[in-house]
Amino acid sequence: MQLTAITSAPGAATGASDARGASGASLVSAASSLRATLAAATAALLAPGLVAAQTTSAAQWQVDSAVLVYQEGGGRVRAVEPVISARRTDGNDRTVGLKLTLDALTGASPNGAAPQPTAQTFTSPSGDSRYTTPAGKSPLDPNFRDRRVALAGTLERPWGTAQRLSLAANVSSETDFKSLSLSAGLARDFNQKNTTLSLTLALEADRIEAQGGVPTGLRPLRAGGDGDGGGRGGDDDDDRDDDEHEGGASRTVADVLLGVTQVINRHWLMQTNIGYGRSSGNHDDPYKILSVVDGSTGLLVGDRYVSESRPDSRSRLSVYWQNKLHLTQDVVDLSYRFYRDDWGVRAHTLDLRYRLELGAGLYLEPHLRLHQQSKADFSQGWLVEGQGWNSSTQTANVANASADPRLAAFTAQTLGAKFGMPLGRGGELTARLEFYRQTPKALAGAPGALRTLELTPTLKATTVMLGYSLPW
Amino acid sequence: MSLNPDPACSLVCSPFPTLCRRAALCLAALLPLAGCSNLGVQPWERDLLAKPSMQLTPSAVEAGVDDHTYFSKEAAAGGRGTGGGGCGCN
Fold first, then answer.
1. Dihedral sign from CA coordinates of A298, A304, A307, A311
2. Cβ–Cβ contacts within 10 Å for residue A242, how many?
3. Is there a contact between B54 and A176 if contact means CB atoms under 8 Å apart?
4. CB-CB: which of B16, B52, B85 is closest to A19?
5. Which residues of chain A make contact with B80, given a CB cutoff of 8 A?
6. B83 → closest Cβ in A202, A337, A363
7. Per-residue pLDDT tens digits for A129-156
8. I need a surface site. Which of A58, A344, A366, A458 has the fewest CB within 10 A?
């Protein structure tokens, strides 16, 4: 769970959160009523705390709920994710929030092995089942199933004059992964609340307990017994030969986020964040492998499959720039993020939303997102026998290697729209439909048979999300 | 609308060149601060800014779900918040 509540608060405090506690419906309708307009103007002249004290005298809970269904094409991953969140601001402008997220994941996920002109057979990570990939197809592990439960709590309160303190905690649990994170943020207003500076620090501790153990580094997998392929495990001996962390592995993450929110004018709000994060520990995906192929034929050879390996630390830097523009009625949300890390990944992400007001509180919000990333330094589609991997000594000639498509170079586009309609008592119902397409960059230097196969299939996914919000 | 310069502007601007050496990053980071002294509105001009649709994150639930989805499918993450997702999906 991203601790976005921490960073959204300072931005909102610049202007938007003056309405904290006031319902959206009342503010919108205020424009059509002189009495309401005067009330809004009066509220705007007051300090946020006083506004909150007046408008939330009943201290209602604001409940937001949503269900997301994410489905990838070709029978790949399907995620169903219900979320419920509740926030309450009291008369002292103290806000408490709770959020519960559930995740149910099923489907097939790429295991990292390269396609071959013949069928390949793999053993599932748990070792209790096998699956076969048809000739010419990218291997997908069909046993991808997981459930995740995440609970987050936030606490926000004024801290001295013109400052606001935010605290958050998040705990997340899934079958093979546990996570605990804490964060603290401080936001301060300047320039009659036209400028807000915020600083957020976050710490996260993760525990990885993968099925079949957590591998360490590039290690050969036992060959399958059918002579056709092989894979993780074999007929009677599962998984890796040695060097597994049967007790699991761990990772820690520290993040710092520095934000500046600036009111440009009556119609324009801008925010810039600089984020730096460093993680240490195990970063490998325990379910991803690489193929060992002959440099001339492209066919499996030697150890055939090895587990992947990633560096044991990662430093990330992001610069995020967001603009909210209020046109005559409609609102434009335009953001850009530059990202880089010491794994060699560089990414540019542009996000555009246009909220088209349809009247009577109804709105339609088209959404376009464009993403481009370069590959990690160690991202590669396979290991060539005698170059990246030496089967006779079972040693790698590279420090790290991964065929995870998420670390490869690709472009991605999201296109969709959200429809929102107000309900009685300040509630809102939303429905969102989006299409996501990820197009990997072709892999260069494919040997032999691999040249004729589709090595980097396009990922397509559809997202449907229904949301329901109401004061409680 | 012109407002009085605030010393905070110089305090914020000065560390950025050190933090971000690349000119492009600095430009993006400093742009909002370039006119600290003459940007902004008076308190009674916040009617539009106070609308829920003008919040930087209008729906924290939706933003959280989106960040989680992209975190699990792409190498890049972060920007508007901290944390890697609390998820073993990547």
1. negative
2. 8
3. no
4. B52
5. 2, 4, 7-8, 273, 320, 322, 335
6. A202
7. 889 999 999 999 988 888 999 999 999 9
8. A58
* Residue partners of A182: CB distance under 8 A and separation at least 6: A167, A168, A169, A170, A202, A203, A204
* H helices, E strands: number in chain A: 4, 27
Sorting pLDDT into bands at 50, 70 and 90, what band is B22? low
Query: In angstroms, rounded to a whole number, what is the distance separating the alpha carbons of residues B1 and B11?
Result: 23
Q: Which residues neighbour A318 within 8 Å (Cβ) at sequence distance 6 or greater?
A: A273, A274, A275, A276, A337, A338, A339, A340, B76, B77, B78, B79
Per 3-state DSSP, chain B is made up of helix, strand and coil in percentages (nearest 5) of 45, 0, 55
- Give me the residue spans of the domains in chain B: 7-73
How buried is residue A464: exposed, middle or buried, by Cβ count under 10 Å (0-12/13-18/19+)? middle
**Residues of A with CB below 8 A from B62's CB?**
66, 430, 432, 465, 467
> What confidence score (pLDDT) does residue A237 get?
37
CB within 8 Å: A176 and B88:
yes
Residues from chain B that touch A459, judged by Cβ atoms under 8 A, are: 73
- pLDDT at residue B5 in the model: 40
Do B36 and A195 count as a contact with CB atoms less than 8 A apart?
yes
pLDDT, one tens digit per residue, over A186-227 is: 999 999 999 999 999 999 999 998 877 777 789 998 644 343
**Nearest chain B Cα to A70, which residue?**
B69
Torsion of CA A400, A105, A469, A92, to 10 degrees: -50
Looking at CATH, the fold of the domain delimited by A4-107+145-210+248-287+312-377+408-471 is given as Porin (2.40.160)
**Cβ separation B54–A16 shorter than 8 A:** yes
- Please determine, for residue B89, whether its predicted confidence score (pLDDT) is greater than 90: no
Look at residues A126, A128, A169 and name the one whose alpha carbon lies nearest to residue A150: A169
Among all residues of chain B, which has the CA nearest to that of A11? Answer: B56
**Total length of chain B:** 90
Of A79, A85, A176, the CB nearest to B60: A85
Residue B18 has pLDDT above 90, yes or no: no
Of chain A, the percentage scoring pLDDT greater than 70 comes to 82
